[in-house]
Structures are given as structure tokens and as C-alpha cells.
Please model this.
Amino acid sequence: MPKISLQHRLKGATAFGCAGLALAACAALAVPAKAQTAAPAAAPVAPAYTPVSQSDLVGASTSDGWLMFNRDYAGQDYVPFDQINAGNVSTLSTAWTSGKIDIPDGFEGTPIVSGNYMFVTTPKDHVIAYNAKTGEKLWQYDYKIAPAAYKTLCCDTNNRGVAVYGSSVIFGTLDNHVVALDATTGKEQWNVSLAEPGVGYSITEAPLVVNGKVIIASGGGEYGARGFIVGLDATNGQQVWKTYTIPSPDEPGGDTWPKGMYQTGGGAAWMTGTYDADTNTLLWGVGNPGPWLAKMRPGKNLYSDSLLALDPDTGKMKWYYQYTANDTWDYDGVNTPQLADITYEGKSYKAVIEANRNGYFYAIDRTDGKLIYAKPFIHDTSILGIDKTGHAITNEELKPTLTKSIFTCPSFLGGKNWWPGSIDPETNMAYVPTLHACMTMVGVPVTYSAGLPFLGEKFEMKDDPTSPGQYGSLQAIDLSTGKKVWEQKSSYPWDAGTLATKGGLVFSGTVDGYLKAFDAKTGQVVWTSPQLTSGIISNPISYQIDGKQYVAIWTGWGGVWPIWAGKLAAPEVKIPRGGQLYVFALPSS
Amino acid sequence: MNSLKTRVLLGAALVAGSAAAALAAPPALYTADQAKAGADVYAQNCAMCHGADLSGAAGPALVGQAFANAANKFTVGPVFTEVVQQMPAGQPASLTHEQYEDAFAYILQQNGYPAGTTKLDYTATMSSKVPLVSEKP
Model:
């Protein structure tokens, strides 16, 4: 049984955040080996901080830091650093760690590195700043979550990270606040509320800052919460625009819903989007429609399971592409839309790439939202192919009703869940963390009740008959064909993001607690870390300081799999809980 | 005349008052035996996600105002239905009807609902309109 009683949700909320256990743990342990010998009372010397400008963000792909959730606006999770490479990766060793942080929930955060500062988030919305070079802890901010928020969390108490802009560190909370902190002190600059807690909404994603606006959205698709994306003024948090992902009847797309159902239509945009600076276009994915049972809402149910192209200054829609119409399988369209310039069948495209929950790997023209190609990357029975208009053909036979139980693949967790994949411009490949599982599903009666799940389906994960017992793989997909080049299979779900580097390496973590490096061209494992304190469900990052390259990753098992995978998650029950940040580098010569 | 009017009004007020009192006291919805058996069902099938003391972990709290307060306007039916349809999360409907009845009896007991002589019944409880408001802080 997972050991999760230590610091359970309510205590975390009513006590002063991690003040009880975790703060003590962090204060005592979250320092590097070197700093531990320093006088304990000495306040850390804050390194100088250079404010982050819009042009810094536009140039993030060449920065030595890691300035936003997916590293750059294109969302490639690729670093142009080659100090660590296939020739020397075997000597990679720990530069510093955070010490164990005693929160028994899933650590899904991506650290953000700006100059010498690293800003991380933990489950339950704690923010910590470290000296990215030495590991010295500079400050910690413990957000106090309204207890009601815990009512409407489907999938753990995670926080996926911060955004940096000016001298601010900005993040969202489980009770729907957006908070800006001073980067050097951790003092609150502003704090605004986007929605009441406990009725469905909750924020877990990292914000994205574009043109001085903080772009962020909330979760809540399992509770009938009507999704929205907002743009806030980065200087004070004031709302500049708000765009609902589910249109009202008088808006375009409003006629794709039965009367009144848009109000509980879900469509949570719960993962950080990307941005095309050339055309000033924000790209943001939208999640599943509510309730899950599609028979209750005939129609396409726009803009659920869609990719939205928005003007970041006004929130106005430029185009949309719906991956799965009238979805009944929980195939959210929120996986990172990654910008890449590709060639397909002899033609060049400015594309956006997305490995979708529905099991298809998409390349879409990012100038107009037209499909370039979509190919299955797992065993898929829900989607039968692509029609002449360039949209998925859904298998109507495999849609459950109140009296019909179905078996289909992929499961409600998809062929790929939220973990950011990476795109390597040198190999022309996408590295995709993949899930292999199917599910049974049947309709059950449901009426909307604010604060209770709004599903209308009963569902259970099952083995994929074509690969029983193999729940995960890491795949490399050729961007010019949409076809698999190599695959590393695992009995565990592949539950972590990937990082590609100019050193010819792909980094990713495993559920049993190993960070691994793969040869980007062949997929061969070229380095395996010692076993870390817990399983990995986060995204590795890399940065450079004073000419030295670092690779950082959170361990901390939890998240959606152990809650919802049922019997398939039995092997993971013994994985120890608690988080720890590890930073690796080559040993100094 | 005057005194009669006063008495009628007073009587009406008393009736209204006692009706309110009757509403405020939570009704008996299960038997003590069910709640006793439910403690075991809960410990084996629910505690790993909702906490041994129901105060929440990977799943939300199932006791106190964080679970069911007056503002939520919850009734017993939809919450019981959620349990029998979805719980334990990931292995829905994997318990017997009796186990679900017992587990829910235990949750009601922990939230201050009194035991009575009539058993909590699976089918009837799914459509119960009795307000669900915890007596616990």
C-alpha cells in the first residue's frame, strides 16, 4: 500500500502548508553537501537576479537557463548543449540534491532556471528557490490552499511549475489563485483568484508569459467545470482577457452542444501551451468534454479535445483543430503542441506536432490548422483512421451506452498522457513517452452536482491484448513520416517526460526511480543513474552555468497512474513516496 | 380574542420550531451492525486513498466540512451513487452491494449520523434526497 498517510491533504491545507513536516525537512536537508558544513544560521547570500524580458523569452531556445515549462516557446524540450554526450555520459554524477521532501504525493514539476536561480514547485503548491549551481536553498514560499479545493482533484495534488517574467516568479494553485513572488526574496507581489475552489476548477499547470501577459487555465473536466483560458497583466494579475473553451449558444461552435449543456461541458485547458512568435499565435490544448458519456451530449462538442490558436493579447481565436469529436473515452487534447518545421511527402510545412491521448501522432499546419498527417503510435481501436477532411474517424461501435459495455484501446489515460515529449532538430525525431493499455467502459446514470465528479461512465483499465504486461515505452518518431524509428519497452507505464540534447542524448526517468540516457539515434541505453529515492513522473531539464552543463529531475511517485490504473498499478504499490530533486553533472576534472 | 390569537400564533411557532429541530437532527439511515462491518470494508478498500481517519490523501476527505457542508447542498443519493459507480477508484463496482452499504454506513456514522433500526439499502440509497451535511467540523 502506498504510504500516503503521513501528511495527508487536510493537514497540508490547514497547517501552514508544508510548515509541519515538509518545511522542517526542506530546511534541514535541502542544501547541498558542501553548504551543510556552513554555519546553519547564516542567511543565504542571494545571487544577483537579472529580470526576464519578452525578448529573453523569445530567445529561450538559446539561453543557458530553462526559462519556461517546455524550455522555449516552441515547446521542444531540446537543449543545444553537448558538453554531456554519448562519449562521457557514463561518468555523470550527482552535483547536488534537494534532500528528501516529505510530501507523499506526485512530484510533476519542471524546474525553471533563470541565471543562477532555480525555481521549483512541489505538490500542494510550495515554491522553493535554489542556487542552481550550488544547491543552496534561497527561499521557500508555502501557499495556503483552501481546504475545499481538495474536493475536486481527480489526479493528485501536483503543481507542474512556475513562469518567470521581470523580477517575478508566477504560479497557479489548486484553489485557483495565480500568485506572483519576488524572484530574489519569495515575497508575494500579487495574488488573484480565478474561480472558487471546491466546485470543479483547480490549477496544476505552469503559466506561460507572452507579451507581458500571464496565460493560464484550470483543470476540472471530471467535474463538469466549463473550461477557460485567461490572460493576466503580469505586473498586477489583473485579467486582460478570458476565453471559454466551451462556447455559449450564441458563439461560433455553440450549436455543437445540446441545449444548456455547455455550462457543464468541461474542456479544461489544463496543460501549458506554446507560442509562435513569428505569427503572434498562442497554441493551447483543450481537454475532455463533460460528462464523459457522449450519448448524453450529441454533437461535436467544440472545442473539447481540440487545439486552439489564439491571439495572446486578446484571447481571440484564429483557428481550431478538433482531435476527437464527441469524445466518450477521455481523450484530452492537452498534450504539448510542439512547433517544428518539417518536410512531408516532399513539401515543407510550419507544423505543430502533438502525440495525442487518442493514440494518433499529429502534424498540423500551424498557419491554418489544417492536418498534414496523423498516424497511430499505439494499438488503437477507438480511432479507425483519418477521413477526407483530415479528422479522426471515431469507432461508433465502441462508444458505451447505459446498457452497452465496451472494450477499447487506448485507455482513458491515452496513448500518451501529459508528460512533455521532446523534438530533436538534428535527428528530426520526436521522443514520445507512451502508454500501452486498454479499458472497459459502460454508461451509468449521472446528474450534475457541483463539487461531485460528472462522468456518467464506469471504466477500468485492462492489459492491451497485443502487448500484455507491457504498459510503457519510449518511442522515437520520424517527423518526416510519422513512423516509429525505435522503441524501448517497459513493463512499467512510461510516466515521465523526455529531454533531448545536442549531445545526441535523450533523457527520461522510470517509475522504479532511474534516470536514463538513450542514444538519440538508436535508442540504446547509454547511462543509468543509481536508483533514486522514488519513482520519476516529471520532466528532466538541462542548463548551463559558468560553462558547466547540468541535468535536473524530480523524483516523487504519485500522480494519476496509482490512483486510476486499478489492478495494473499493483506492481507500483511498494514504490517509496516523497520527493527529491537531483542535479547531475560531469565530475570536475 | 386577543389571548386566543396569541396562543394560535405561539402554537404555530412551536410547531414550526419543532419541525426545524426535526430537520436539523440527522436522520437514522443505517444500523450499528452495518457501520461496524463498514469500518473493516473501509480500512481494506478505501483508507489507502482517503486516509485511515477519512481525512483525505490521494482521494478527498470523507469526513467533516471539507467533505459535506451546508453550502455544497449535497444529498445522500449522488454521493452514494458516486461511491458505487466509481469507487474504489480504478476498480469500480468491485465490491458487493453489502460492502458498499456497510462502507457508506460507516462514512455516515463518522459524519455524525445516528444508527437506527432500518438497514441502509443499496437501491433505495442511490436515489435518496436526504441532505448530506456533516455534523463534524
In short: The first strand of chain A starts at residue 78 and ends at 79.
